[in-house]
Amino acid sequence: MSTASVTLPAPAKLNRMLHIVGRREDGYHELQTIFQMIDLCDQLSFTPRRDGVITLTHQINGVAQDENLVVRAARLLQQVSGTTMGASITINKQLPMGGGLGGGSSNAATTLAGLNHLWKLDLNNTALTELGLTLGADVPVFIHGHSAWAEGVGEKLTSITLDTPWFVVIHPRVSVSTPAIFQDSELTRDSLPITMARALQGGAPEWRNDCEAIVKKRYPPIAEALDWLAQHAPSQLTGTGACLFAAFESQQAAQAVAKLASQHWRSWVARGLNTSPLQDALGC
Ligand SMILES: C[C@@](CO)(OP(=O)(O)O)[C@H](O)COP(=O)(O)OP(=O)(O)OC[C@H]1O[C@@H](n2ccc(N)nc2=O)[C@H](O)[C@@H]1O
Ligand SMILES: Nc1ncnc2c1ncn2[C@@H]1O[C@H](COP(=O)(O)OP(=O)(O)O)[C@@H](O)[C@H]1O
């Protein structure tokens, strides 16, 4: 790989199941979740600069440059490594923001891994994961780069191998606030912890999302889309939404349902993966 400039993918994730099993003293919730990446990606291009400046070539609507997780990740990496290098970064955004697909966290993970490579810092994955966790609870799994069973706030990761169906992913054109859902007094936050083995058996009742009931109640358009998709295959929310998904055995079947869905909502067909395309691109 050339060190001049590099373009790397930042894939989306789905939570195939998500249980909330407790709440920590700092307010964060203890989860048990299964993460799977899909081949729906943002693309990030990095061009190194010798003047130490971190800059985005284009702004993302509604996110100030200094708040962008890509810029925050790059600055954090500069800080801990002491490098004098900078970078111009282009974000080609495909993933909806605040959609439960983890796009912002994935952008941060790709920035940490990409600049670690480009700036020749040689930080290992454990160090990158620790940095990533300070930026968001979902960043570690994107550094990890493999389907995973996750506990804690999503940072205790065990690699697993999942089926790789074709997913129909729908964005019902509403935005869900993750903090608001986690603060909701009616949220189910006392599910009994289960073992990974039990979770991996799949299917109901374990492959559910504990955020779903409250999200459906607070956001009727999401309830409507979930009910619509359930006519074709079992439908589920990813993360705290707003996106929802269903699995299909064939690409054709998924495409047929996505075509119908696109009459009402933004929708995609994406393949489930076990290895992140970021790891593939970095050759690790
Ligand atoms: C729920 C999940 C499941 O994958 O997905 P998303 O819907 O966001 O994609 C994640 O754990 C979200 O991760 P992420 O989006 O990185 O969350 P953060 O920025 O760290 O946290 C946003 C806010 O949500 C609440 N929060 C988040 C994670 C968690 N385990 N417990 C919480 O209570 C906290 O109030 C926190 O301030
Ligand atoms: N590069 C980025 N891409 C997406 N969102 C970003 C980015 N930088 C900061 N954000 C902020 O992070 C929030 C969460 O984004 P995202 O990870 O896409 O959603 P979710 O956590 O629901 O999966 C966004 O609403 C946005 O305000």
TrEMBL record:
Pfam families reported for this sequence: GHMP_kinases_C, GHMP_kinases_N
Enzyme active site: 13, 138
Catalytic activities: 4-CDP-2-C-methyl-D-erythritol + ATP = 4-CDP-2-C-methyl-D-erythritol 2-phosphate + ADP + H(+)
E.C. no: 2.7.1.148
Sites where the protein binds ATP: 96-106
Keywords: ATP-binding, Isoprene biosynthesis, Kinase, Nucleotide-binding, Transferase
GO MF assignments: 4-(cytidine 5'-diphospho)-2-C-methyl-D-erythritol kinase activity; ATP binding
Top enzyme category: transferase
Matches recorded under Gene3D superfamilies: 3.30.230.10, GHMP kinase, C-terminal domain
GO biological process terms held by the UniProt record: isopentenyl diphosphate biosynthetic process, methylerythritol 4-phosphate pathway; terpenoid biosynthetic process
Pathway per the UniProt entry: Isoprenoid biosynthesis; isopentenyl diphosphate biosynthesis via DXP pathway; isopentenyl diphosphate from 1-deoxy-D-xylulose 5-phosphate: step 3/6
Residue stretches making up the GHMP kinase C-terminal domain: 208-263
Alphabetical list of NCBIfam families matching this protein: ispE
Family: Belongs to the GHMP kinase family. IspE subfamily.
Role this protein plays: Catalyzes the phosphorylation of the position 2 hydroxy group of 4-diphosphocytidyl-2C-methyl-D-erythritol.
Protein name: 4-diphosphocytidyl-2-C-methyl-D-erythritol kinase
Species annotation: Vreelandella alkaliphila
